[in-house]
Design goal:
Elements lengths: L2 H30 L20 H28 L3 H16 L1 H17 L3
Helix pairs in contact: 1-2, 1-3, 2-3, 2-4
Length: 120
């Protein structure tokens, strides 16, 4: 393996682990919040609209922590696969899935959480 291949693997791992840590951190932050966690950028969830704020925030925390998993998997795959072509293709699969299907999953999951904990 050349130094260039190793450098690419390390950069890929740092980027994906960094993304995974970011999303996992959002989950931790959501869990520790006292007021309701918002999902959409620039929006706020009114505490009066949520029936159980701690449970609502725990559900949001679980959602974000689960979303971080494909990023960690991608990082590990980029380090474990020693050949340039295969590490790119194998480690990019969970990354591409997180960026496409994962975004759809986040939106659908949040909509279910919002519906479950909304005041009737």
């Amino acid at each position: 393996m050349s130094g260039e291949d190793l450098f690419g693997m390390i950069i890929m791992a740092l980027c994906t682990f960094g993304s995974g840590i970011l999303f996992y951190g959002i989950g931790i932050w959501s869990y520790k919040r006292k007021d309701p966690m918002s999902f959409w950028a620039g929006s706020a969830v009114s505490p009066e609209t949520i029936c159980d704020i701690p449970a609502y925030n725990r559900a949001n925390a679980q959602m974000w922590k689960k979303y971080s998993v494909p990023y960690f998997i991608s990082g590990f795959l980029s380090l474990l696969t020693p050949w340039k072509a295969s590490f790119l293709s194998v480690s990019l699969i969970p990354l591409c899935l997180a960026g496409t299907v994962g975004i759809w999953w986040l939106i659908r999951t949040y909509q279910k959480i919002e519906k479950q904990y909304q005041m009737q």
